[in-house]
Amino acid sequence: MRWCPSSSFHLLRCVRLRTCTKRRRNTLPLWIREIWAYIRLLVQSFYFNSLTDSDVVFDSVFEPVFWTVDYITRWFGTVFVFLVVFLTSSILAIAYLFVLPMVFRTYSTAWITWHVCYGHWNLVMIVFNYYKATMTSPGYPPTVKNDRPFVSVCKKCIIPKPARTHHCGICNRCILRMDHHCPWLNNCVGHLNHRYFFNFCLFMTMGCVFCSFSGRNLFLDAYNAIETNYQTAAPPYTFKDKMINKSIIYMWVLTSTVAVALGALTCWHAVLISRGETSIERHLNHREKERMEKRGRVYKNPFDYGRLNNWKVFFGVQKRSHWLTRVLLPSGHTPPGDGLTWEAFPVKKDVIPV
């Protein structure tokens, strides 16, 4: 049998008409198709390239929440700084107006000398380090083109990020060797002011412990004077005596509470400094360690120079006299290095032979 071209043409035409009829029957309304296309576009935007992972999806979904938290924290930073200054000033006022006169009347000359010398040295270290931590820039990477090595490009700033650099959503800038954003400083803690932040926490804890222990007996006397028993009438106290007792109780409770809370934070940062890592690097190193363990390999922090050397680098100790002039006394020296390049996997020896 011969195949007729006209018959095949009519057959193809019938099939095409039937398929077109089915498509028209299954066509959805335009507004539904637009919504469906928009949803597909949103879903596909989560995996627009091979670098997208769960962190990118999480950041994209919760971006409005992060923006709100960053905005509130940025605004409340000034309030937190005011609270630090106000609470510290109130403790100083109570100490100078009420506690010191009692110390001069009851303690011996040696104890008075110790309290006055240590208390004022501790106070100078607190004020100096808090001022420097608040006013010193944490350090920013260059925004112009340069030949410095970098490890990635910031997705927010769209500039090269050197090693150990991270973006702060509150400051809206990249920070060199960023540790965290501290609302109590209203500033980021980075390469240039990390030492001031740690010294402030350390000496504030020491000052609170000093006030708590030295004022324990005064606190007990003031508490017993205010606390009355139902069986006996309260002894007659003047308004001034009541104010002194309540002020001493307020000072002891506040300093004891701050000593516990801030002392725990100081110990945590001391552990991080001993390991040669920041708060952000702690989480990154822990994640990298778990990833390497799954592959049967061991991960080592490339910026860990050893415990003693980590402290030397952190404090900027370059000779023996610096333990006094740069650690125990106020010092405005800059940390070693520029924060853009770091020596990784150093040789196991004292980088600073002190």
Automatic annotation (TrEMBL):
The keyword Transmembrane applies. Its EC number is 2.3.1.225. Keywords: Acyltransferase, Membrane, Transferase, Transmembrane, Transmembrane helix. It is found in: Membrane. The DHHC domain is required for palmitoyltransferase activity. It is an enzyme of class 2 (transferase). Residues 152-283 form the Palmitoyltransferase DHHC domain. It catalyses: L-cysteinyl-[protein] + hexadecanoyl-CoA = S-hexadecanoyl-L-cysteinyl-[protein] + CoA. This is Palmitoyltransferase. It is a multi-pass membrane protein. The chain crosses the membrane at residues 75-99, 111-131, 196-215, 249-273. One of its GO terms (cellular component) is membrane.
